[in-house]
């Protein structure tokens, strides 16, 4: 089969890898509009389930991804006053640019043709491709060209946010809230390398305008944010440039589609669905799309049946996640007041935020005990090592 993948992000590259491994006879080309080595954003974070999935599909790229990761321990919520609240758990993260380099190298090594600085839209001649995989992101041109057929719906959030780096070395998945005369503002941060962390800043529109962030040039905006988050960042600086790409303020776009294929065009990743960044599930869901689509193509000889099976299976499995993502986005748009509330109680509302049943307050408070936290970290570490040993077993 001749396959054209439009978009050289994690979804497009990993689909090319998975499809080539499934059938080396596939002729696959990936078309990316940006230059090689260019990327937006900073880190991506995920849990053991993604590493497990990658090892099952392609141990070679999985080992490279795992070796490039750093690990964060615990989730932490900080209010302007009082002791931070800490909760159990751990995860993995790495720079998006590092992930793209690993996947590009693996795809090329398998015989995939990767074309950079090659923009594709609905009018582009893709030759005699039997299948066109639209992996061109939240504003997919291929999807927009047939938006009526796909039944595309985009719900744009109210809160501005910006994706930055920082020289502060976070060891935990951290959320810090700051109070300003203009209103609340917060960041969510996690390590991306041993030296650099990702820092996503978000606030209501009123705070954004009140602080002058709506009109400030990026260097001035970074200075404002460094002053606002002086305590949370430990006096470290923010970084607004990544691989030549300049950060800018965005509003989250919640994308859903009634159907994910049209003729020989099929949607994957953010072109098909988006999930609010507070759930930290975007990469996992996109790579899962790739694997399910690849398996459907190998299982059903007729392309139309393979795409229909992929469409039914993935849309059904993502329905609950889409609902949770939209609810999480709206929760942060109406961040409850924390005046007079201790960090543990406030953190409990953040971690559940209407999408999960909150644990009893006594359990939350008990979890802040140094003894309980130490026991929990030991349990997490044993689980992590067991998962790593399982993944490293020979097939």
Helices and strands in order:
Elements: E1 2-6, H1 10-22, E2 27-31, E3 43-46, H2 48-57, H3 59-68, E4 70-78, E5 85-95, H4 96-109, E6 113-115, E7 131-134, H5 141-145, H6 147-150, E8 153-166, E9 173-180, E10 183-191, E11 197-202, H7 205-210, H8 218-228, E12 238-239, E13 241-242, E14 245-246, E15 250-256, E16 261-262, E17 265-267, H9 282-299, H10 303-333, H11 343-352, H12 361-366, H13 370-391
Parallel strand pairs: 1-2, 1-7, 2-6, 4-9, 7-17
Antiparallel strand pairs: 3-5, 4-5, 8-11, 8-12, 8-15, 9-10, 10-11, 13-14, 16-17
Which features would summarize this protein structure in a list?
395 residues, alpha/beta, 13 helices
| CATH class annotation | Alpha Beta
CATH architecture: 3-Layer(bba) Sandwich
Number of strands: 17
Number of helices: 13
Mean pLDDT, nearest integer?
90
Helix-strand pattern? EHEEHHEEHEEHHEEEEHHEEEEEEHHHHH
Overall structural domain count: 1
Global structural class: alpha/beta
* Helical proportion, percent range: 40-55%
User: What is the rounded Rg?
Assistant: 21 Å
- The gross shape turns out to be globular
What kind of assembly state do the chains in view correspond to?
Answer: single chain
Low-confidence stretches: none
What name goes with the CATH superfamily?
Answer: FAD/NAD(P)-binding domain
Give me the CATH fold name.
FAD/NAD(P)-binding domain
Straight-line N-to-C gap:
28 Å
Please state roughly what percent of the residues sit in beta strands, choosing from under 5%, 5-15%, 15-25%, 25-35%, 35-45% or over 45%.
Answer: 15-25%
């Amino acid at each position: 089969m001749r396959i054209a993948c439009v978009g050289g992000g994690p979804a497009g590259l990993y689909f090319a890898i998975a499809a080539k491994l499934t059938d080396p006879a596939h002729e696959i080309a990936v078309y990316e509009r940006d230059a090689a080595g260019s990327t937006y954003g900073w880190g991506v974070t995920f849990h053991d389930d993604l590493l497990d999935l990658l090892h099952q599909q392609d141990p070679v790229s999985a080992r490279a991804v795992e070796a490039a990761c750093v690990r964060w321990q615990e989730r932490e919520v900080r209010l302007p006053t009082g002791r931070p609240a800490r909760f159990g758990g751990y995860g993995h993260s790495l720079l998006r640019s590092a992930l793209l380099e690993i996947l590009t190298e693996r795809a090329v090594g398998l015989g995939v043709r990767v074309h950079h600085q090659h923009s594709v839209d609905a009018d582009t001649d893709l030759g005699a491709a039997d299948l066109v995989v639209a992996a061109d992101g939240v504003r997919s041109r291929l999807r927009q060209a047939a938006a009526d057929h796909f039944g595309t719906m985009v719900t744009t959030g109210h809160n501005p946010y910006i994706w930055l780096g920082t020289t502060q070395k976070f060891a935990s998945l951290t959320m810090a809230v700051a109070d300003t005369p203009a209103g609340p503002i917060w960041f969510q941060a996690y390590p991306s390398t041993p030296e650099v962390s990702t820092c996503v800043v978000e606030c209501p529109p009123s705070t954004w305008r009140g602080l002058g962030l709506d009109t400030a040039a990026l260097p001035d905006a970074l200075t404002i944010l460094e002053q606002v988050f002086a305590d949370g960042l430990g006096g470290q600086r923010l970084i607004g440039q990544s691989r030549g790409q300049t950060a800018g303020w965005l509003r989250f776009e919640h994308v859903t589609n009634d159907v994910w294929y049209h003729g020989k065009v099929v949607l994957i990743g953010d072109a098909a669905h988006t999930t609010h960044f507070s759930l930290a599930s975007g990469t996992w869901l996109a790579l899962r799309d790739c694997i399910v689509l690849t398996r459907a193509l190998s299982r059903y000889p007729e392309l139309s049946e393979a795409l229909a099976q992929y469409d039914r299976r993935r849309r059904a499995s993502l329905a609950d996640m889409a609902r949770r993502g939209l609810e999480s986005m709206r929760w942060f748009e109406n961040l409850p007041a924390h005046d007079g509330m201790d960090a543990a109680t406030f953190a409990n509302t953040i971690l559940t935020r209407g999408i999960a049943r909150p644990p009893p307050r006594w359990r939350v408070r008990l979890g802040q005990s140094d003894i309980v936290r130490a026991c929990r970290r030991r349990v997490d570490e044993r689980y992590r090592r067991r998962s790593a040993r399982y993944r490293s077993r020979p097939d």
